[in-house]
Amino acid sequence: MSLQESDPLPAEPVAAAAAPAGATTTPVVAPVSSRSRRRLRPSFAAGAGLVTVVLVAVPLLVLLWSSFTVSPLGLPFTSNSHLALDNYIHVFTDRTLVRPIVNTIVFVVGSLAIGLLISLGLAVLLERTNLPMRGLFFALIVAPVAMPQVVAGIAWGLLLDPQVGLVNKMLQWLPGINGPGPLNSSSLLSITAVQGFLLVPFSLLLVAPVVRSTSGALEEAAHMTGAGRRARMVEIVLPLMAPGLASVLIYQFVTAAQAFDIPAVLGLESGTKVFSTAIYKQLNTTTGLPHYGVANAMSVLLLVFALIPMYWYYRMIGRSERYAVITGKSYRRRTIQLPGVWRPVALLVVLGYVLAVVVLPLFILLWMSTQPFYSTPSFSGLQHATFEAYRRVFTVSTFKSTLRNTLILGVVAATVACTLATLNSWLLLRRRGLLGKVADVFAFITHGIPGVVLGVSLLFSSLYLGSHTRIHLFGTMTLLVIGMVIVTLGVTTRITTAGIGQIHRNLEDAAEMCGAGFLSRVLRITVPLAAPSVANAWVLAFAYALSNLTLTVVLAGSANRTVAVELYTRWNFGDVQTAAALGLLLTVISVTATVLARSYAARKEARH
């Protein structure tokens, strides 16, 4: 019997006086009073919002302060510094920034088009159809999340190299192509395409819960009225997914706008600069001191640019209940049965993507890790293969400590970030007060701060705090965890907001009428129904913490060294084989975490 046919729950417990004479009555526990429930809400949801604001406000204030600071050394909080507009005047009058700005626009639009279209198509195939091996394909597609982007950039640079690149060597088999390959790894087109491919795993984790939660009952009702497949997609499915897709678009817009690793690895030496690499150049000058003030002023302008789409996003969030599909009225997900030949065609498409975009870079990493010197993969090169790099990885004296630090960073940062994100999303969608919007804005804008600048801001903050208080965070795991929580709050909040936004509040209202308190409603109703979203958020935060290089390098010390820092150090010292082996190790850990998290989410969903 469906929920619509079941008897309604009694609004009031039956009074003991109404029982027959002589019958044994059971004491009825009175519902939690509305005053108690009002006290519980601020203590958790509002508390999470305040923690988010404080966590983000400190480095943000340091960023803003330093962007207006002018000093001989370019450092804030010095005795000879003063406030002025010199940094912003320099940015607006520097004609050399025109080309990076134009390149950034092309780079952002192109990479978004590639990344979002591919991820949306994959999400539909993996979450809504009867495609075989969907769980395995999902884990493989998400696996590059854990690969440090600097390593991914190096792998793609080798694949697209005009002289020795494997892709160009394969293209030379085509008729009419002679000499060097047609692709150039340092061109703006190649940089844009590679960044688009790297957006797919993140976008898939963001889009999958939205696609997965779309109810099939509405589609079936439209089909019964004669609506065709295209009409159902345009009039029902896409509007229901609009808030979730908008949040993905906005988040990945900022991701592409401040992306650094791929443009730096592939285009910095050749002169193909975007705005983020222009900021890096201000922090790493060939002559003189770093221009911290100018770099921070450029970062503030990038933040302002990133906040422009937020107005549209919050208008959609304000109407989120129009798009809620998980209610108390016979919600079910509709699986699309791929007909006839389309099922093997879809399987070949997904398999082809996995082989070309996921397996091929991983194969290059494996090849690099087993070759004394890099050369185009060939059968003759197999005779030089050696696994010495893997022996060095597991026998080096610092391996255990770096692996332990990496796992602690990933688990703690992902758990804290997901907890704050879930409560912030509830605060934004259910309370709809000023604090929820402020906390969500603060969580989002952290994504617009380049990692180098955020790391420098946290570094300055820890030094200032250590010199004026007894709290010493410099060089500790605590500082690294705080930084990683700040970095991942944006993406985890986007995922949980999209997931909770499709759960109608009438389920919580019904539980509240039966006496359930705030924690009981969130833990027993909202979180289990949003389990796929929370699991995806945790996986993404965990994988990002494992692979993040920029923040961990800036805040690294002897006590908080991670595998990503060890990888970067090995690469800089020319130990390519060990760096590639470490990159593969991070990928294996990410795939394992993804499979476990999705299995957990599937079990939770099956129970509800």
How would you briefly describe this protein structure?
The chain is mostly helical. The chain contains 25 helices and two strands.
What structural class results from the helix and strand content?
Answer: mainly alpha
The CATH homologous superfamily is named MetI-like
CATH class assignment: Mainly Alpha
Overall geometry comes to: globular
Instruction: Summarize the biggest pleated sheet.
Output: 2 strands, antiparallel
Task: Spell out the blueprint of helices and strands.
Elements: H1 34-67, E1 69-70, E2 82-83, H2 86-93, H3 98-128, H4 134-142, H5 149-159, H6 166-171, H7 188-213, H8 216-224, H9 229-257, H10 261-267, H11 275-283, H12 292-307, H13 310-318, H14 342-370, H15 388-395, H16 399-431, H17 434-445, H18 451-468, H19 477-500, H20 506-513, H21 518-529, H22 531-547, H23 550-554, H24 563-572, H25 576-607
Antiparallel strand pairs: 1-2
